Amino acid sequence: MVFVPNTVSPISRMGNDDLGPPWLKPMLRASYFNPCSIHGDSNKSECNMFCLDCMGTALCSYCLINHKDHRVVQIRRSSYHNVVRVNEIQKYIDISCVQTYIINSAKIVFLNERPQPRPGKGVTNTCEICCRSLLDSFRFCSLGCKLGAMKRGVPDLTFTLRMKHNRDSFHGGSESDESSTPKKIQRTLMFNRSMVDSPAISSDGHYNYGGERSYSSGDEALTNISPGTPPIFNHRNARRRKGIPHRAPF
């Protein structure tokens, strides 16, 4: 028996997980914004939807009734190029290294490459596939260009989402409870805490924290942060000076 070594290249042995989910290529290759072959006579029957579960052709809004509980993304168009919103696609794939753009107040990514053979003057960073000028923090201008680099065997690229670990999974709380609190409320909390932490000596010689005695517990001090009620001022007694005799009128 003759042993034949495996001569298959590493790229050809890659599965769908290594080159993205199985629906990625059909989504990039689909034809969008054509009249639907089924609902072409209806208004707004442009095919601008794609079902990630069926991985078929583009869909129109009337076709969605047959795709209930499926993952569907909407394809949009910018400058005659197909785009998808970041908040829709980033739930399913990792779009890192792909430059994002803001169009109509929404962050988007392009589906396929947009070649630019002559970058402008002063451009220092371009797409590794189609040479389109990019910001310095990105490597590709579209999802298709990132996929093309992965086919070439460029390391450290993936479409697989990574789990994000934060303090919630370890400590049962967020990283900062005050990070999502409005600044005005934060300033109020800081002021109240300073009232609690700053002692004041009362008339009976005890330390008061925000109007409460020092022998109160910490939780009580935080809940009773309002200042104590001042004593009632007697204006009649204030007019009389101690030690000065009252003279009879002339």
Explain this structure to me?
- It comes from Quercus lobata.
- The chain has about 250 residues and is α+β, with helices and mostly antiparallel strands.
- It has a domain at about 25-150.
- The protein has helices at about 25-30, 85-90, 145-150, 165-170, 185-195, 220-225, 235-240, and strands at about 50, 70-80, 80-85, 100-105, 105-110, 200, 205-210, 210-215.
- The protein has a five-stranded antiparallel β-sheet.
- Strand 2 and strand 3 (about 80-85) form a beta hairpin.
- It is extended, with a radius of gyration of 35 Å.
Keywords for this structure?
7 helices; 8 strands; single chain; extended; disordered N terminus; 250 residues; 12% strand; three-stranded antiparallel β-sheet; five-stranded antiparallel β-sheet; alpha+beta
Secondary-structure blueprint:
Elements: H1 24-29, E1 49-51, E2 72-78, E3 81-85, H2 86-89, E4 101-103, E5 106-110, H3 143-151, H4 167-171, H5 183-197, E6 200-201, E7 207-209, E8 212-213, H6 218-223, H7 235-238
Antiparallel strand pairs: 1-2, 2-3, 3-5, 4-5, 6-7, 7-8
Task: Compose a concise summary of this entry.
Residues 226-250 are annotated as: Disordered. The protein is of the alpha+beta class.
Strand order of the largest sheet: 1-2-3-5-4
Count of separate DSSP helical elements: 7
* Series of H and E elements: HEEEHEEHHHEEEHH
The helical percent reads 10-25%
Uncertain segments of ≥5 residues (pLDDT<50)? Answer: 1-16, 165-185, 198-226
- Envelope shape: extended
